[in-house]
Amino acid sequence: MSSVFTKIIEGELPGRFVWSDDQCAGFLSIAPLAQGHVLVVPKEEIDSWLDLPDELAAHLMTVCKTVGQAIDEIFSPRRVGLMIQGFEVPHAHLHVWPTNTIEEFDFDRVDKDPDPEVMEETARKVRAALVAAGHEANVPE
């Protein structure tokens, strides 16, 4: 059975994409820690990040850094958080989000009902920042 992330990547479930290439996709989390919370997910279904081939793991980190720079430009947080925890979906994924305190790393604080209009605007802003930084080939419309 396909993971929820595979279903999003394949278009079976909706997603607010900000990045796509042949190895991975980036889309907004439906339960964000903060506005701008992006999940970077390999297209290949691999349960644990420890099982990622080295080249794919390195690519995911590069994409996280690129997306993180866009998030930093848009939100100007104290830091851009990066976390791999993987309990909720058995498909490796990296969380990238704007953060100002260590308390904002707590998944008990997610927004379980984010405003869809705010989510659409956030995705638009992240895509625009990525295009402005020269990554238009990887920014889906």
From TrEMBL:
InterPro entries: Histidine_triad_HIT (IPR001310), HIT-like (IPR011146), HIT-like_sf (IPR036265). A motif (Histidine triad motif) lies at residues 91-95. Coiled coil: none annotated. Residues 4-107 form the HIT domain. This is HIT family protein. It comes from Kocuria atrinae.
